[in-house]
Design goal:
2 domains, alpha/beta
């Protein structure tokens, strides 16, 4: 049962940080999808999706390739990518309710309901770019998902993956990226630090994320 169903209070950041399993994720966003943008994105000055999309656009070679938006939610990353000129985007998310909201934005060629902790229902080497904001964070998805994301990416595909700064080392992301680089499975590994919220959110104005940029070999 979601926090909103239990208490009647609006869902928020604490509920998202409390997610530990795919079942938790499904329960949270089942109750939150309809109001997610008006209750969370707008009032908090959430800018993470825009920052990740901008970094991806700066490193991606052009708008014609097919890009996978991982953990697309209601489609805010897709909207940001489209505004920057990316025209071909697929969205992937665990929550059917969030995908239904993403469909309303008309920015995705295809929307895929899938669990990142499992084998994805996608062909090998299908995508020219992979982008994600807000998925690799508190209890949602760990670095194990990188194996499947690399599988579905074509050689040379560009990645921009936002990772919660607190978990980059603690959850094993740093070690996994180092392994991938050492094994020559990825190239051009760089890390940029971005804001998650604008300065209008006094409580979380200093919250940061790391955006991991690289190319699949």
């Amino acid at each position: 049962m979601s926090g909103e169903e239990q208490t009647g209070a609006p869902l928020g950041l604490g509920d998202a940080y409390a997610v530990r399993t795919p079942a938790d994720n499904l329960a949270l966003y089942r109750g939150w999808a309809a109001t997610y943008e008006q209750d969370f994105i707008a009032p908090r000055g959430y800018v993470y999706h825009e920052n990740v999309a901008a970094l991806f656009a700066a490193h991606h070679p052009g708008p014609d390739g097919l890009v996978l938006d991982v953990g697309c939610g209601t489609g805010i990353v897709g909207e940001a990518l489209q505004a920057l000129g990316q025209v071909r985007i697929d969205g992937l998310d665990l929550s059917p309710e969030m995908l239904a909201k993403a469909a309303d934005k008309n920015v995705y060629e295809r929307l895929i309901e899938a669990d990142l902790t499992q084998v994805l229902p996608l062909n090998d080497a299908n995508y020219d770019g992979v982008v994600s904001a807000g998925t690799f964070t508190h209890g949602h998805v760990g670095p194990e998902a990188l194996t499947e994301l690399l599988r579905v990416a074509a050689a040379g595909a560009r990645f921009a993956l936002g990772v919660n700064a607190e978990h980059y080392h603690g959850r094993g992301f740093a070690a996994r990226f180092d392994q991938l680089a050492e094994a020559r499975m990825i190239d051009d590994l760089t890390i940029e630090q971005v804001r998650i919220y604008n300065e209008g959110d006094a409580e979380h104005a200093d919250d940061l994320a790391l955006v991991v940029l690289f190319a699949k070999r």
